[in-house]
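Help needed: design a sequence for this.
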């Protein structure tokens, strides 16, 4: 009887325990394999993304030179703008100087006319006195001294008026030159601005021809600025 019970127990446990142990091991193995595959896929995706990013950076590495070019052009444009403003200010200053000297010259010529009128009066009186049969010598000498004094005053006034006129003419010429410099510098500033705009477009659309055109315009603007500042002095 005991033997039959033992056999029954053996018959009951023998098929169950080995079956449970084998199924659990198989499930664990399947889970590990699935996790490993997912991890490998994730690593592969990260690696592919990293490679793609490196390739993109390598393709777009030239854009940093575009940015550097734009910085240089912007600095030169600022210098050109400053110099152009200086030429405009110089034009206004010289025009004011010319107007002032013109006024001074006009005043001197008016003074000259007043002296001439007084001199003529004394000259008429001297001629009238000299026509008399016995003119008084003291009065004649006095009138002659007055006429001579007015001659000297008129000569001094003429010299001073011509000096003011010469200063006026020089100021006008300087103002004209400064205005021309301002105009020429304005051309350089315009070229700089176009170059900067094309450079900005190049950074957006990633087209090298735009960078080339921008650089050429920047070089032309720089040459124009150097010509105005050093080869066409004010």
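Sure. Designed sequence:
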């Amino acid at each position: 009887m005991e033997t039959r019970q033992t056999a029954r127990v053996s018959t009951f446990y023998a098929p169950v325990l080995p079956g449970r142990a084998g199924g659990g091991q198989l499930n664990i193995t399947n889970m590990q394999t699935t996790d490993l595959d997912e991890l490998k896929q994730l690593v592969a995706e990260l690696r592919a993304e990293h490679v793609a990013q490196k390739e993109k950076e390598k393709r777009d590495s030239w854009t940093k030179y575009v940015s550097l070019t734009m910085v240089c052009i912007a600095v030169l444009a600022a210098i050109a703008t400053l110099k152009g403003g200086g030429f405009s200010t110089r034009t206004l200053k010289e025009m004011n100087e010319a107007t002032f000297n013109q006024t001074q010259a006009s005043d001197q010529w008016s003074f000259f006319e007043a002296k001439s009128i007084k001199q003529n009066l004394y000259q008429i009186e001297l001629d009238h006195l000299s026509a008399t049969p016995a003119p008084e010598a003291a009065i004649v000498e006095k009138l002659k001294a007055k006429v001579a004094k007015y001659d000297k005053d008129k000569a001094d006034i003429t010299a001073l008026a011509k000096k003011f006129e010469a200063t006026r003419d020089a100021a006008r010429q300087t103002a004209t030159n400064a205005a021309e410099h301002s105009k020429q510098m304005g051309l350089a500033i315009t070229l700089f601005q176009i170059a900067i705009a094309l450079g900005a477009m190049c950074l957006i659309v990633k087209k090298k021809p735009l960078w080339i055109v921008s650089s050429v315009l920047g070089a032309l603007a720089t040459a124009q600025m150097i010509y105005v500042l050093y080869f066409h002095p004010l």
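Residues 1-21 have pLDDT under 50 and may be disordered.
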